[in-house]
Amino acid sequence: MSLLWRDRIQVFFAPERVDLVRSYRGIKPRQVDRHAVCERIPGVPAWEPALTLLKQLTGDGAGAEISIVISNHFVRYAVIPPQSRIETPAELYAYAAFQMREVYGERAAAWSLSVSSWDPGTGAVCAAIEHTLVEQLQEFVARHTMRLKNMEPYLAGAFDHWYKRFDNSRAWFALIETGRLCLASLEDGAWRRISNQRMWHNAEDGLLAALEREALLFSARREAVEQVYLFAPEYPELNLPADCGWRIIPLQNEGSAPPHYPHYLSAAVAEAG
Q1: CB-hemisphere CA count at 13 Å for 196?
Q2: Minimal CA–CA distance to 196: which of 177, 215, 212?
Q3: What is the pLDDT of residues 143-154, one digit of tens each?
Q4: CB under 8 A, 24+ apart: contacts of 202-208
Q5: How far apart are the first and last CA of the chain?
Q6: Is a pLDDT exceeding 80 seen at residue 74?
Q7: Would you call 38 helix, strand, or coil by DSSP?
């Protein structure tokens, strides 16, 4: 089958929701969007109900090309510092694995690692996802005879989509989904810090507390008013106090997001899994 004629399936995969967009190719192209929620099951991995839901939403995907974005709930990140002696991909992977063990301990042995584009002068970012989840998603794709185009962490996909919008010298980037805040800082084109944490408070309080903490502990300097680029589609009204020292630049207003990215689900549009 020609790649030009493949249906395309784009998925956002999270603990309690799956967002799926299927583009049908052919003489009469059309697009079908499906957004559904599910409940966690005590005693089983958080991804299992979502995987069951994904199988239901996909239906007959035979021959389709599929892309999967993995929620930050299922990903752990670490900034990989510059290292001039790294010369091969194998050395880079070993270095990234070492750094992940330094940050997360021996549990990192159960994770699949991926590393962003490497620069010996600015370093890279390593993302880790549980081996079993990766294997189950790959098995699902193979069983349905689909072609896996890519499987990427939410932070990576969102950053690639909007990085040209960021200030080249200094940027704070916040990515919020239900119950999770991922906050990254960049300076002179290099990643400085990534914090990926649960949100125990409301989104506004959680974001402000995280920004203040990261700026206090890990930022060498601070402007009178710092800008933070924010993508929080499930929180369309999120804002910060005018006098808090931070100004939000909402990315959801800076051009359209990829259609399968999460967005606010009202009770009227959410499908039960």
Answers
A1: 19
A2: 177
A3: 999 999 999 999
A4: 203/176, 203/232, 203/235, 203/238, 204/238, 204/239, 204/240, 206/181, 207/174, 207/176, 207/181, 207/183, 207/238, 207/240, 208/240, 208/241, 208/244, 208/246
A5: 32
A6: yes
A7: coil
Return the closest-CA partner of residue 273 out of 20, 6, 67: 20
pLDDT in tens, 199-218: 887 899 999 999 999 998 88
Least confident residue range of 13-17, 53-57, 90-94, 117-121? 117-121
CB 23 within 8 Å of CB 271: no
What is the pLDDT averaged over residues 131-152? Answer: 95
Which residues on neighbouring strands pair with residue 17, listed in sequence order? Answer: 14, 37
Name the residue type at position 130: E
Work out the average pLDDT over 245-268: 78
90: left (phi over 0), alpha (psi -120 to 50) or beta: alpha
Identify which of 76, 222, 144 has the alpha carbon closest to the alpha carbon of residue 136.
Answer: 144
Q: Which helix (H) or strand (E) holds 49?
A: helix 47-58
What's the one-letter identity of residue 44?
Answer: V
d(CA 189, CA 167): 9
Q: How far apart (Å, rounded) are the C-alpha atoms in residues 229 and 250?
A: 6
Report DSSP state, residue 123: B
Is residue 238 scored above 60 in pLDDT? yes
